[in-house]
Every structure is written in structure tokens, then in C-alpha cells.
Amino acid sequence: MNADHGWPVSESVADQVRRLREQLSDWSYRYYVLDEPAVPDAEYDRIFRALQSIEEQHPELVSADSPTQRVGDRLLDGFSEVTHEVPMLSLDNAFSDEELVAFDRRISERLGIQDTVIYVAEPKLDGLAVSILYKDGQLVRAATRGDGASGEDITANIRTLRSVPLGLRGQAPALLEVRGEVVMPHDGFEALNERQRQAGQKPFANPRNAAAGSLRQLDSGITAQRPLEFYAYSIARLEGQAMPATHLASLQLLRDLGLRVNSLVCRCHGVDELLAFYQRVQQQRPTLGYDIDGVVYKVDDLALQQKLGFVSRAPRWAIAHKFPAQEELTILRDVEWQVGRTGALTPVARLEPVFVGGVTVSNATLHNADEIERLDLHIGDTVVVLRAGDVIPKVSAVLADRRPESARAITIPVACPVCGSEVFRAEGEAVTRCTGGLICAAQQKEAVRHFASRRAMDIEGLGERLVDVLVDEKLIANVADLYRLSIEQVASLERMGEKSAANLIEAIQRSKQVALPRFLFALGIREVGEATALALANHFGSLQAIMAADDQAFVQVADVGPVVASHLQHFFAEPHNQQVISRLLEAGVTPSESEPQKPETLPLHGQTWVLTGTLEQLTRDQAKAALQQLGAKVAGSVSAKTSMVIAGEAAGSKLDKAQALGIAVEDETYLIKVLTEHGVYPGSAE
Ligand code: JCF
To answer: Which of 63, 124, 353, 506 is 20 to 30 Å from the Cα of 577, by its Cα?
Structure first.
């Protein structure tokens, strides 16, 4: 701690250490308290490491309030007890506007005042209350709330929170005991749970549990890795300087001392402003980034607070106005399967209506069959329904011990509930899908739109809106019907002239002459994009050969794995799809046939190309398809086998790796030149 054991420390090193600490502490203050990051994290880390390395060389300069000293090296064998000099109170709750109005009336009456009462309102964070003690500006102790009278000493753990200053800023009071809430923000919570899963450990149920578990660690090294944040909400004790006159001023003092105070805190005049605050915060709730379960109102004037005093363990001068519960219990009556635009079957829970999150809910999403299995859901079960903010209600848990004898298992349909086609779930996929893509009424609009799109059949003038009208007016039910449309039929539609109708029919007729890869892509087979369609066409040469192929034959195609192969097989095996394809061919659609190409003869045969960064002139998929057409393999990562890397805008690590391996790197202009030379540049060749 000081220089009297060892060599004398040169003034300049001590100064340097002081300067680095001040710098780091100032950046933390700006980041956490002012919410105005001053430098990128990398710069903070660089200075932090610089300080660390000087301290290693001059251990006598290390002090407890150095930002390098957040993680202790001592393992605790338990937490010792801390008696709260000033008890940590709980708050009374209001669950309705009426209860709030009654609270405000009680305050006015007790104080005998006619004017509107001035309050301070703040969000009520859903975390853990802690009390932190500073003596002469140094953090000396932190404790949990416990039962309010005494809690546990968690000093080592609280020291690891970067939003908690180890030393106060400016003119520090002789003693400060500050109270506040420790929370785990949503992004950190998600990341932590992901790490837990990766490590084969159980994820935490919610951010509050995760925060509690993190503060209870006997190894502060673990707490240091947990994304915890502290928000101060009151001063319990202050010595050596005068207590401000109002609650708001005390929060401002905390801010000045370097403690983080919630930025939504605001002064409100009377009940109406409190209610407006409540509404505003409720709306912001989903985007705050941390959990809150209501708002807190406090009488602003500390002298009035003192007059009002306490009832049992809660102050009379404050109240928590809770948001409606976001979770309720109800009964699962049935499960229905809905078919989405892309053929995905989604189970929907039909529930005994229940009031949750401020509305009555009778349907909830179950996402997919895996979710049903994971929850071990049965019809008749008592379930937890969660409705957070404006999001779609979902069934989040099952109370298995309340399952009645009459409960029934839930079966996944074998046929599409809309069109009767076979349903299919690819290996490793969570989603069950209807295979009748070309005829299913749930998918017809999407199927027609995709079929007509520029990179598929390229039917000019057949836009989204017109597809809607054609389907809604029952002029078409599937893509084959397009070729039977007459000019009169189209012209009879609203806002359609004779001329544009004729143009559309002409565009439809023109689309009959189509390259096989485009036609295959246009069918909208799951996971068959332009590149795969091209590979299939090159491999098989004709539609007939493709329709006759099976899984075994499909996996022979470069870039077709077992999942895509099974999608292809199921699509072509579905009789409804076969019918639509037959009708397309009968109507005169002629996908051009070509000899299956000998791969050795292609110009880029044997080469492996890698695309990285953003391309401006063509999509990744187009570039990939065109390169494959020339015989190149297109790989996702750079290795010694890579022949060429095309680096677009903002190319990242792949570019670095290519340079490290000495692999040729060119830009998009070069790519376009190669594609154009060989007549496969999608932007010019067609
Ligand atoms: O955010 C909270 N959970 C919170 C709890 C905020 C406050 O201002 C509180 C509190 C508990 C007690 N104030 C008191 C007096």
C-alpha cells in the first residue's frame, strides 16, 4: 500500500498510476452514471492493462480502490452477517389506479395539506436490494437485504460490479450508506444462459434468479464474470455533510458522488402525473433492457417523509405501483395446428380464458412440436401463460402435478390441416411443414409471388398486390392457373386496364420459355435456392430426370446434403405437386434441357472460391450460383485449399486469414469481370 518497504518509488511512477486510475474511473463514471461512453471498450481495456502491468512491477503502489482490484483472490467459506443500522424497508403495493388515489389522499390528509403533493417516481427494478457502505469515500462493505434487519456480507462480490465505484468522486462524505438494486440486464442474461447451456449446465429461469445466484457466489471471480449492474435509489445514512432537503436532490448527490441512478427518475406533481409516468414506463418496459415489475413513488420532501413515518416495516411516504401480472395459470383445452405462409405448421393452444398482462387471453403460441415435447404438454393440463408487454402470449410451463386423469397426449398431424398434403419434418429441424407447397391454400399467395419473382419465372407486372387480388377473386389457386388467365379476366379486375392486362398475359406467356434452373428455383422447394437449383439442373439435365430421382440420387449432387435431399424427395413425391407440374408442362411451360455437364470442362473446375464482406452489384446467392455454374466450389471459410477470396465491403476475419495464408484476394469488380467474360454475370447476361 505504501512505499516504506522496498525501494523508494519514483514520483513519476506513482503519478502515472494515479493518472491511469483517474482516467479509468472517469471513463467508468461517464459510461455508467452519465450513460455517455467516452472511449471504446478496447481503449479502456488497453489502459486497464497498462495500469495492471505497472502495478505488477510496483506492488507497493497497489491500493484497494484501484480498478484492477475488483476481483479478490480469497475464497470465502461463507458469508458473515451484517446488521443494518438503518433497517432495509419493504414497500407497500398498489395494484390499481384507485389504490394509488387512496394512497395520495392518505398522504394529503395526514399532512393536512390541500395542494398537490410532490412525488419522485422511478421504475421498480426486479433485482436484489443491497446496501453499500462508504467510509471516507472508500467502499468498505456491502450487504444483502436479508430480512431487512440483517443481511449477508457480500462486499467481495459487489466490488466486482463495474457500475459500483470503489472510491467516490469529488468531495466524499465521512460516511455514506447507499441503497439500491442489483439487476442483470436482458442481453447479459441471454448470453449467460447460452454459456450455461454450452457448458452443459442448467440455464437460469429469469434474470432475477441469475442475479441472486451470482451474488451468492463464494468465489468473487465467478461473480465478476456475471453481467450485474447496480442502480442506487436512496441514502440510508450520510455523515460529514448535510442531507439534501428532497429525495430528488439526494439522488442528484448520489450521481455526483459517482453512483448510478436510474435515468427515468422524475419529479411528479400529484396523482395525474404519477399515472402518466406509470403509463409511460409501462410502454417503455419491453425496450428498457432489464426487468421491472412496476414503478415506485416517493414523497419528495424529506421533512414530510419524516412526518409521515412508517407502518410496521414499510414507509407511509412511498408505494410500489405494480404492473399487472405477466404470468397466470389456466387450463389447456385443445391444440390446433395453423399453417403459415411458408407451410410451417404451428401449434396454437386453446386456453380457458384468463386475464394476464392486462388483457384476456384465450390463445397462446406453442411454437412447434419440440416445444410441446419439451414442456411435456397434455390437453387438460394446468399451464402457465406468459404475456410480456405486447408480445404474443405463450405457454411457458406446465404444472405436471396437477394433470388430471383425463389428460390426453398431443399428436402431430400426419396431413396438412389446410390442404391434406403429407406433412414432413426434416431431420434436425424443429418445424413440421406441409409439403403441398404448390397447392396449399395457406401458402398459395406466397407460392405464386415467389414463382413470378424476378429471379424465378420473372413475370413482369405480377406484383404482390395483384397476386392477392387474383387469389382473393378466385381467378387462380396455384401457379398453373396463371397460364389459363385471359386478358378479359384480368381486365375485369379493379384498377386494371385493357393495356396492362394484355401486358401481363404477354409476360406470362413469355415466361414459358425458361431455363431449367430458374424453373426449379421457382417451384419454391424448401432450401432450394438459386445455387442448388443450378447444381441440380447441371447434374440431372432435365426436369424428368430430377422428378425420377430419389434421396440417394439427390445427395450425389454437389452441395446437396441429406436434409435438402429429403425436401426434394418429399416435394416431388407429393401427388398434388406432381399435378401442378404436369399442368404447367401441359400449358406449354418448357424448362430448357441441357446435357448434364462434364465438370472437368468447366473453366473454374477444381478451384475453391470464398466470398466475404458485402457485395454491391449482386447477392451472395447469385455470386455463388454463377461461380458454381463455372465449376468452382464456393466455400464458407478460408483454408490452404482456397484458390481465391473475393472481398466485398467491410470484409472481416476471412480477409485477414487469406492474407496470412498468402491466398489471392480480389474485389467485386474482378468477380464481375470473370463472370461477364464467361457469360454468367446475372446483371448483364440476361
Ligand atoms: O427498484 C426497486 N426495486 C426499489 C425498491 C426502489 C426503491 O426506490 C425502493 C425499493 C425498496 C424500498 N425504495 C424503498 C424504500
So the answer is: 506
